[in-house]
């Protein structure tokens, strides 16, 4: 569960940051429940007096089908998490501006603040951690809370707020990596 970033000097005080996102933690509960349910449906549709070969075929279909459902459900859940957490990214910073993903250029004099936030929808309340840095905590009962907490731990994003807009510079990071990136970018921009 590790993320990181590279700094590439481009000359004239410009630095390209390339963020490698942390992998999304495996989700087991929901995909497994869907797999078991699909296997039970295959077995439940078995005729009243099946032959031994029909039983064997149904069991093979139940196992293989259940595994296929589990894999698809896990991929679907992981894809949704990746969309929410804005994985990875590359952007360029100079003392004069930030060149964000998607071509947006944010002049230093228009930059209101840099903020580290979490891309996972919050179940708890927002809490201030440091000046200019906030995160959303995940507090819910049971497995949902554990899954959200694991996912939230690799879903930190660095955002730049300018004017009335906000641009995500990079995401999919652990908190420590995101705060380190915030420090390095602030140093280049000479932000207090």
Q: Name the overall outline.
A: rod-shaped
Q: Name the helicity range.
A: 25-40%
Overall residue-averaged pLDDT value: 77
Beta-strand percent range: 25-35%
If helices are DSSP runs of H or I spanning 4 or more residues, what is the number of helices? 4
User: Nearest-angstrom radius of gyration?
Assistant: 23 Å
Low-pLDDT parts are 123-141
From the helix content, strand content and strand pairing, which structural class follows?
alpha+beta
Terminal CA distance reads 31 Å
Number of strands: 10
Domains, number:
2
Strand order of the largest sheet: 1-2-3-4-5
* N to C succession of SSEs: EEHHEEEEEEHEEH
Major sheet: size, sense and barrel closure? 5 strands, antiparallel
Task: Describe the protein in words.
A hairpin with a 5-residue loop joins strand 4 (97-99) and strand 5. The protein has two domains: 4-21 and 87-189, no CATH class; 29-82. It starts with a strand and ends with a helix. It has a five-stranded antiparallel beta sheet, with helices on one face. Strands 6-9-10 form a three-stranded antiparallel beta sheet, with helices on one face. Strands 7-8 form a two-stranded antiparallel sheet. Helix 1 runs antiparallel to helix 2 (52-85). With 192 residues, the protein is α+β, with helices and mostly antiparallel strands. The protein has helices at 29-44, 52-85, 142-152, 175-189, and strands spanning 4-11, 14-20, 89-93, 97-99, 105-107, 111-118, 126-130, 133-136, 156-162, 165-173.
């Amino acid at each position: 569960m590790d993320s990181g970033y590279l700094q590439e000097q481009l000359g004239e005080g410009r630095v390209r940051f390339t963020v490698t996102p942390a992998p999304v933690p495996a989700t087991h509960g929901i995909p497994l429940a869907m797999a078991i349910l699909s296997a039970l449906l295959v077995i439940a549709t078995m005729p009243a007096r099946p032959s031994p070969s029909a039983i064997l075929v149904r069991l093979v279909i139940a196992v293989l089908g259940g595994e296929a459902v589990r894999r698809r459900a896990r991929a679907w859940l992981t894809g949704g998490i990746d969309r929410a957490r804005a994985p990875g990214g590359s952007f360029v910073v100079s003392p004069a501006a930030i060149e964000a993903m998607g071509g947006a250029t944010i002049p230093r004099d228009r930059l209101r603040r840099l903020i580290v936030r979490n891309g996972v929808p919050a179940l708890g309340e927002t809490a201030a951690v440091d000046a200019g840095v906030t995160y959303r905590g995940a507090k819910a009962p049971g497995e949902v809370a554990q899954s959200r907490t694991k996912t939230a731990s690799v879903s930190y994003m660095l955002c730049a707020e300018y004017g009335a807009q906000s641009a995500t510079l990079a995401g999919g990071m652990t908190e420590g990596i995101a705060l380190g990136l915030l420090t390095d970018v602030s140093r280049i921009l000479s932000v207090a």
